[in-house]
Amino acid sequence: MPSRHELVAYGKNTEEIAIAIGADLVIFQTLPDLISSVRQFNPSITNFDCSVFTGEYVTGGVAEEYLLHLEQLRSDNVKERLGETKRELENATSVIEDKEKAVGCSGPMNGTDDTVGLYNSWNSKAP
């Protein structure tokens, strides 16, 4: 689940949102109209979980402090994973550089051998 800061509309007005998504115009539907439009397909539904729009969660106890705590945890986890990925890339780069030095190559070999650039010795009309 994205944090609020990762949502396209966070902290933006309708003009800024339109620019961000490449639209000419952004129009929001009201929550009562959204509920009404869904209810017409299934009138037996009487309650809707609108917590993502209203912040009123059916479980209760979801306060602003809790949401901020979750965002911080998620941010810390992402930073940790990015750090691990950076270390893996640095290690892989080091291994490639060591291999290049060992064979005296100025660029990556990409699995090729020493016949690169030589003529093709196969000839279907060979005598």
Could you walk me through the main structural features you see in this protein, from its secondary elements to its overall organization?
The chain is mainly alpha-helical and 127 residues long. It has 2 domains: 60 residues, no CATH class; 43 residues. Helices cover 48% and strands 0% of the residues. It is elongated.
What's the arrangement of secondary structure elements?
Elements: H1 14-21, H2 31-39, H3 51-54, H4 64-103
* Oligomer status: single chain
- Main sheet characteristics: none
State the separation between the terminal residues, measured CA to CA: 69 Å
The helicity comes to 40-55%
Radius of gyration: 29 Å
| Anisotropy-based shape | elongated
Summarize the structure.
By secondary structure, the protein is an all-alpha fold.
Quickly list its features.
48% helix; 127 residues; 2 domains; 4 helices; mainly alpha; single chain
